[in-house]
Amino acid sequence: MSTDVRIERVLPATIGRVYDAWSRPELLTRWYCPNPSHELQVEADVRIGGEYVVTMGPYVVRGTYLEVDPPRLLAFTWKWDDAGDDVSQVRVELSEVDGGTHLVLSHTALAGADDAAGHLQGWELQLTRLTDLLTAEALT
After folding, report:
1. Do residues 32 and 118 make contact, with C-beta atoms less than 8 angstroms apart?
2. Which residues are within 8 A (CB) of 84 and not within 5 positions of it... i.e. 6 or more apart?
3. Which residue, of 33, 87, 109, 127, has the greatest Cβ tally within 10 A?
4. One digit per residue, pLDDT tens: the chain, 140 residues?
């Protein structure tokens, strides 16, 4: 298996709503953890060179925004506090399509195949939570 993860999905919302869900801390705290039983805290300064910190229960991931192009692109570094010097990169590309927003998530330069498999599982769970949030909010 590769040390990279790539996921594509069509999300049931406008590109602006999807981008907001990725860039506004008050929305990120509603979906940005694969385990809904963990307390989730998000601090994010969404600008090139800005930093973020996400606390998911006992786990902390942090990084720096490398590219910010609303509402189409976010790219940032990704480093777990307990992962030594391992730093990977996440890229989220959004485009409008019939029925919603096409998302391409790439997470590259992970430490190995097991790390990639774990992150793939985590991202899949998180994106399911995001889809549920966007669907629920579309109905209200």
Report:
1. no
2. none
3. 33
4. 589 999 999 999 999 999 999 999 999 999 999 999 999 999 999 999 999 999 999 999 999 999 999 999 999 999 999 988 899 999 999 999 999 999 999 999 999 999 999 999 999 999 999 999 999 876 54
The CA-CA-CA angle for residues 117, 129, 20, to 5°, reads: 110
Give 88-131 as a DSSP string: EEEEEEEEEETTEEEEEEEEES-SSHHHHHHHHHHHHHHHHHHH
**pTM score > 0.85 for this model?**
yes
**Cα separation, 134 vs 21, whole angstroms:** 9
